[in-house]
TrEMBL record:
Source species: Selaginella moellendorffii
Domain Calponin-homology (CH): 19-140
UniProt entry tagged with the keyword Ligase: no
Gene Ontology CC terms, in alphabetical order: microtubule cytoskeleton
Name this polypeptide is given: Kinesin motor domain-containing protein
Length: 724
C-alpha cells in the first residue's frame, strides 16, 4: 500500500516537474519569438502542436545563430487548399533541418517522430522540452547570463578511458559546433588545466561556480527541481557515456579482432596455397621418383634375367606368442630390398646392411610373397627349369613360406600350393594351343639318403603311377611321379608327402624338419599347331634348418642328422661359391642335395631363394651368417635361362635314335649272351676233354702200376729160387 502511495507520489512529482519544464520552455520561447498563441502553462499536446511544423524551432535557432538554418519552409496561406502530404513533408524538412543544426551544436536532440501527430507516448515531448531548455542554456551562455543546468546533458564524443577523465569530460560542455575546433572547457577544481575559452571567448568555470551561476538567477522554488534535474541529467549522461564508451570499445575491439582474424585468415590461406603448391610439387616429384625406381627395378630385373642371377628375397618372421620381450635385431626394412640388422649389446659397430631383390617385413602376407615368385612359375610352362628354395635357421619360417601353416584357409596357402594352382589355371587358359601333362614327385633327403615321400603310400596306386620316362624331364630317377590334373590332386599329394616327411624334436623347434624336402613338378606341353614340345621343371625346396650344430644342442642321432644337414648345406654353399667365381669345376657331386639341384643351379635355369630370418636378438649371429650366405647366393650368375623346347622333327629323330639305341642295346645283349653261351659250351668241352684225359691217365697209371707190381713179384720170386 505504502509502495503504491509512494509510486503515485513519484508519478505526480514527475508530472509536476515535466509541467514546470514545459512552463520554462514556453516562457523562454515567448521571450525569444513573441506571441506563439499558446498558454503560459501549456499542456504537452498544446506545446507539441505549436512546434510540429518546425518553424518555431527553426526561427528560434536562427535567432540564436543567425543563418544556421538557411531555409525555413513557411506554412501555406490559410486560403490555399489543404495538401496534407505536402505539409507533412514540409514540416518534416523544418524539423530535420533543426535537428541537424542541434546535432552540430552537440546539444541534446530528439526524434522527428516525437513531434508527429498522435505520438504522445510518455516522455517523448520531454526530450523536445529538454532540447529547448538546452538551447536556452546555450543562448544564456552566449549572452553572458551564466549557465543553465541543461548544459550538463550535452552530447560529447569522448575518447577518455579513466573514470576520472570520464568525469572530467562530463563537465565539458563541448558546445562547439562540429565545424569548429575551439572548445570551451570547465575546469575541475584543483586540476591543472590550462584555461580554455569557448567560441565566444568565455573563460572556463569550475563546477561549484557553474552551479552557483545557474541557480543565481532562479527563483528559490525553482532550485530543488533544478538541482534534482541536474543530478538526474548528470547521472543519465554519465551512464550514456559509459555505455557509449563500452560500445565503442567493444566495436573497436571487435573491429581489431575482425581485422586480425581476416589478416590471419588471409595469411593461413596464403600458407595453405603455398603448402598445397609445395605438396603438389612433392607429389609430382615423389611420383617421378617412384616411376624412376620402377623403371630402374625393371631394368635391373632385365639385366638379372640376362645374367641369370639367382634372385634372393628375404622374409622376416614375426615374433611368436611370448617372444615379444626379447627385442629385435632387425633395425630397418627398406622398400627397395634393404635390411639393416643390429646387435643391441654391441652398439653402433654391429649395424650391418644387406641388399636383396626385396625384403618382406614381419607383416607381409602369403599372397604378397608369392607375387614375386609368380613370373618364374609361369615360365615353367614356357619350358624353363626353375628352382625355388627356402633357406634359414630352424623355426625361421621356411615351411610357413613354402607350405603354409596347417590351416587350409586360402589366404594361408604357401608358395607350393599357389604355384601348382597357378600352373593349372594357366594350363586351362592355354588349352586351345597346348596339351599339358603335369606330374609331381616329392622326396626328402634325410641323412644323405633320398626317400620317396609318395612311393610308400596308397596315393600313387589311387592316382596311377606314370612311367617317369614319359615326362622325360629332370626327374629324380628312383622316385615315383604322380600325374596330377587339378589342385585337389595336388593338395592330397602334398598332405601325404608332408605326413611322411621326417620330423624330429630339437631344442630349437619342436616340429623341426630334419630333412630337405623337394617337391618337383614336371610339365610337358605339346604345341598343338607346331607339334613342338616344351618341358619345364619346377623344384620347390624346403631346406632343413641351417643353424650351427653347437647351437642345436643335438647329441646322438640328432647330432648325426645335424652334421648331415650341415654337410649338405655347406656343399650347397660350395656349389654357389664355385658358380659365383665362375670356376670350371662345380662340386655338384659332394651331396645328394646339390646333385639333385644341379640342373637348376647351373643349367641356365631360373632360381629364386627365399631367405628367412628370426627377428629376435638371440638369433643375431645366425641371422648374420644366413644373410651373408644369401648375399653370396645373390651374386651368382647362372647365365641366361634357356627354354627346353624341341621342334617336332628333332623329337622324331630323337625318338628314332632312342629306339635304334634300344635295338642296338638288345642286339649287343644278344651277342653278349651268344658269346657267353659259346664260351660256356667250349669251356664245357675243354672240361670234358680234361676229364677224359685225366680218366685215361688214371687207367694208364693203374695198369702200369699193376705191371710194375707183377714184375716186381716175378723178380722177387726168381731171386728166392737161386739161394741155397
Ligand atoms: N610369416 C609368418 N607369419 C606367422 N607365423 C609364422 C611365419 N613364419 C613362421 N611362422 C611360425 O613360426 C613357427 C616356425 O615356422 P616354420 O616351422 O615354418 O619354420 P621352419 O624354418 O620351417 O623350421 P624348420 O627348419 O624346423 O623346418 C611356426 O609356428 C610358424 O607358424
Amino acid at each position: 500500500m505504502e509502495e503504491g502511495l509512494s509510486d503515485i507520489h513519484m508519478a505526480s512529482r514527475r508530472a509536476e516537474e515535466a509541467a514546470h519544464r514545459r512552463f520554462l520552455a514556453a516562457r523562454w520561447l515567448h521571450e525569444m519569438l513573441g506571441g506563439l498563441g499558446i498558454s503560459n502553462e501549456p499542456s504537452e499536446e498544446e506545446l507539441k502542436f505549436s512546434l510540429r511544423n518546425g518553424m518555431v524551432l527553426c526561427n528560434l535557432l536562427n535567432k540564436i545563430h543567425p543563418g544556421i538554418i538557411p531555409k525555413i519552409v513557411e506554412s501555406p496561406p490559410p486560403s490555399s487548399p489543404p495538401d496534407a502530404a505536402l505539409s507533412a513533408y514540409q514540416y518534416f524538412e523544418n524539423v530535420r533541418n533543426f535537428l541537424v543544426a542541434v546535432e552540430d551544436l552537440r546539444l541534446p536532440s530528439f526524434e522527428a517522430s516525437d513531434l508527429a501527430e498522435g505520438s504522445l507516448s510518455s516522455g517523448t515531448l520531454s526530450k523536445v522540452v529538454d532540447c529547448i531548455l538546452a538551447l536556452k542554456a546555450y543562448h544564456d551562455q552566449r549572452e553572458g547570463k551564466g549557465f543553465s543546468p541543461w548544459k550538463y546533458g550535452v552530447h560529447k564524443l569522448s575518447g577518455t578511458k579513466s573514470p576520472v577523465k570520464g568525469l572530467e569530460d562530463m563537465y565539458e560542455p563541448a558546445i562547439t559546433p562540429k565545424s569548429s575546433h575551439t572548445r570551451k572547457r570547465w575546469a575541475i577544481p584543483g586540476a591543472d588545466v590550462p584555461e580554455a575559452t569557448d567560441i565566444s571567448g568565455q573563460p572556463v568555470q569550475s563546477l561549484p561556480s557553474l552551479v552557483k551561476s545557474i541557480i543565481s538567477d532562479k527563483q528559490p522554488d525553482e532550485v530543488p527541481v533544478l538541482v534534482e534535474y541536474m543530478i538526474k541529467k548528470v547521472t543519465d549522461e554519465f551512464e550514456r557515456r559509459l555505455r557509449l564508451q563500452g560500445e565503442q570499445n567493444l566495436k573497436h575491439t571487435s573491429g581489431l579482432i575482425r581485422t586480425g582474424t581476416l589478416e590471419m585468415q588471409k595469411c593461413w590461406q596464403d600458407q595453405l596455397i603455398r603448402l598445397e603448391n609445395e605438396l603438389t610439387g612433392l607429389t609430382e616429384a615423389a611420383q617421378a621418383y617412384h616411376d624412376v625406381l620402377a623403371e630402374n627395378r625393371k631394368l635391373y630385373n632385365e639385366v638379372q634375367d640376362l645374367k641369370g642371377n639367382i634372385r634372393v628375397y628375404c622374409r622376416v618372421r614375426p615374433f611368436l606368442v611370448g617372444q615379444k620381450d626379447q627385442g629385435t635385431c632387425v633395425d630397418f626394412v627398406g622398400q627397395n630390398g634393404e635390411i639393416m640388422v643390429a646387435n643391441s649389446t654391441k652398439g653402433k659397430d654391429s649395424y650391418k646392411m644387406f641388399n636383396f631383390n626385396k625384403v618382406y617385413g614381419p607383416q607381409a602376407p602369403q599372397d604378397e610373397v608369392f607375387l614375386d615368385a609368380q613370373p618364374l612359375i609361369r615360365s615353367v610352362l614356357d619350358g624353363f627349369n626353375v628352382c625355388i628354395f627356402a633357406y634359414g635357421q630352424t623355426g625361421s619360417g621356411k615351411t610357413y613360406t613354402m607350405t603354409g601353416p596347417s590351416s587350409t584357409a586360402k589366404q594361408d596357402w604357401g608358395v607350393n600350393y599357389r604355384a601348382l594352382n597357378d600352373l593349372f589355371q594357366l594350363c586351362q587358359s592355354r588349352r586351345d594351343a597346348f596339351a599339358y601333362e603335369v606330374g609331381v614327385q616329392m622326396i626328402e633327403i634325410y641323412n644323405e639318403q633320398v626317400r620317396d615321400l609318395l612311393a610308400a603310400d596308397g596315393v600313387s596306386k589311387r592316382l596311377g603311377i606314370r612311367s617317369s620316362s614319359s615326362l622325360n624331364g629332370v626327374h629324380v630317377p628312383d622316385a615315383v611321379m604322380i600325374p596330377v590334373a587339378n589342385s585337389s590332386d595336388v593338395l592330397e599329394i602334398m598332405a601325404v608327402g608332408q605326413r611322411n616327411r621326417a620330423v624330429g624334436a630339437t631344442a630349437l623347434n619342436e616340429r623341426s624338419s630334419r630333412s630337405h624336402s623337394v617337391l618337383t613338378v614336371h610339365v610337358q606341353g605339346t604345341d598343338l599347331a607346331k607339334g613342338c614340345i616344351l618341358r619345364g621343371c619346377l623344384h620347390l625346396v624346403d631346406l632343413a634348418g641351417s643353424e650351427r650344430v653347437e647351437k642345436s644342442e643335438a647329441t646322438g642321432d640328432r647330432l648325426k642328422e645335424a652334421q648331415h644337414i650341415n654337410k649338405s648345406l655347406s656343399a650347397l654353399g660350395d656349389v654357389i661359391a664355385a658358380l659365383a667365381q665362375k670356376q670350371t669345376h662345380i662340386p655338384y657331386r659332394n651331396s645328394k642335395l646339390t646333385q639333385l639341384l644341379q640342373h637348376s643351379l647351373g643349367g641356365q635355369a631360373k632360381a629364386l631363394m627365399f631367405v628367412h630370418i628370426n627377428p629376435d636378438n638371440d638369433s643375431y649371429g645366425e641371422t648374420i651368417s644366413t644373410l651373408k650366405f644369401a648375399e653370396r647366393v645373390s651374386s651368382v650368375e647362372l647365365g641366361a635361362a634357356r627354354s627346353n623346347r624341341e621342334a617336332s622333327g628333332i623329337r622324331e629323330y630323337k625318338e628314332q635314335i632312342m629306339s635304334l639305341k634300344e635295338i642296338l642295346a638288345k642286339k649287343d645283349a644278344e651277342i653278349e649272351r651268344l658269346q657267353a653261351s659259346r664260351v660256356l659250351r667250349s669251356s664245357m668241352e675243354v672240361e670234358k676233354q680234361k676229364l677224359r684225359v685225366s680218366q685215361s691217365t688214371r687207367s694208364i697209371d693203374a695198369r702200369s702200376r699193376r705191371s710194375v707190381e707183377l714184375r716186381s713179384m716175378e723178380v722177387i720170386e726168381a731171386g728166392s729160387g737161386c739161394h741155397p
